[in-house]
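Journal club side-thread
Mid-discussion, someone asked how the predicted structure for our own chain would compare to the paper's figures. Pasting it here so we can look after the session.
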Amino acid sequence: MLALDVSSSVDADEFTLQMSGLARAMRDETIRGAIIEAGGIQAMAFEWSGRFQQVAVAPWTFLRSDANIFAFADRIEAHVRGFDEFPTALGYALGHAAIQLSRAPLTCTRTVVDVSGDGVTNEGYEPATAYRNFDFSNITVNGLVIEGEKPDPVAYYRAEVIHGPGAFVEVARDFSDYEAAMKRKLLREINGAALSMAE
């Protein structure tokens, strides 16, 4: 699951860099090869910002060929931003992710929430509250954090956001580095899925 930050700290240019960067990362030959070699992955994407501002970007899709990976990436790149004026409600985003995961059409060997962001929670409940009140058993939450804001979002994601077995944070220097960071992150996550399938 791909959870994409569109809070008010993300301007229009940064939003474009995020969405196009994710789409290009998905289309990358190495990423496509890893997905196919793993036997395919079930994926969906949504944007998040305030407490009640979660918008579907791409629905649950089983990615197992170049054709459906490209179609999924195209949908992400073409997405029209739903909100741009709301604060950062990470706890609510995680709660929404848990609900959507419970409705996934397939049961996966390994489940990962890939949450991107450039700031810390400043509205609603904290991630710890989401983890106490929603079912995150057997779910790993990894972070892709864009550096630069204060307080430091990298330290916050490491201390408060990542969750579950093997959880990690990937860091982008800024939004122009988002694509490269996402490639590193996806490859690590997909290879983990392949290893789980082999066990």
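Post-session note: The longest helix spans residues 178-198.
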